[in-house]
Amino acid sequence: MRVRRVPGAYEALLKYDRYFIPEPERFKGSWQSVFGNDNPLYAEFGGGKGKFIIEMATRYPEINFIMVDAVTEILLKAAQRSYKHQLPNLRIIQMDLQFARNVFSDGELDRIYLNFSDPWPKKRHFKRRLTYRDFLETYRYLLKKGEWVHFKTDNRDLFEFSLNEFASLDLKMKNISLNLHANEPVDNVKTEYEEKFSSLGHPIYRVEVSFRE
């Protein structure tokens, strides 16, 4: 998806300082201090305009949520939406995932969400997919032992690629679905893309994965 560049977007984003955290490296290992509690910390990598993470933060006030994206204009939309909901358990940061270890310490996250990540369909770009093994090793570092990555996509090729990557690292897999909405769990929270693609009749693929000791 091509995002229209907005002049002054970063300056506008800084005004939402209750939600947007500039220089997130400052809080590596101490994200609980940002929220002022010891609640579990869930992160969504590639959060889009924030629909999913805002609804999650609304439903589960006992959990702290961080939305991560690299695109300023997308983050601005998410910050604007967050401001309307006034959620104390939600923060937004700008980060390329290759620098995730600079922002979160070993075992600092209790869950990771990957929702409708860019499929990077060209074969030469496969290393950019967020379920490529190098990214998976980063998630292994970020997650507490025994915790889970939740992955959803409408792209069958990406899903098959991801299952192969998970298997190559001997990850545990559960709740595998090739058509999530055919028997949709009551606790499923839809993203913008999920609503769009499912309305067009596309099956939604889902799996949860965890790293063995």
Quick overview of this protein structure:
Helices cover 31% and strands 22% of the residues. By secondary structure, it is of the alpha/beta class. The protein has a seven-stranded mixed sheet with strand order 3-2-1-4-5-7-6, sandwiched between helices.
Structure description:
By secondary structure, the chain is of the alpha/beta class. The chain is built from seven helices and seven strands. β4, α5 and β5 form a beta-alpha-beta unit. The protein is globular. The N and C termini lie far apart (37 Å).
CATH class: Alpha Beta
* Rg from alpha-carbon coordinates: 17 Å
Total count of strands: 7
The CATH superfamily appears as: Vaccinia Virus protein VP39
Helix-strand category? alpha/beta
**End-to-end gap:** 37 Å
For the residues shown, what is the average pLDDT? 94
Widest sheet: strand ordering = 3-2-1-4-5-7-6
Helix segment count?
7
- CATH topology heading: Rossmann fold
Write down the overall geometry.
globular
Low-confidence stretches: none
Number of domains: 1
Instruction: Assess the beta-strand content as a share of residues.
Output: 15-25%
Query: H/E element string?
Result: HHEHEHEEHEHEHE
Helix content: 25-40%
Per CATH, the architecture is 3-Layer(aba) Sandwich
Largest sheet: 7 strands, mixed
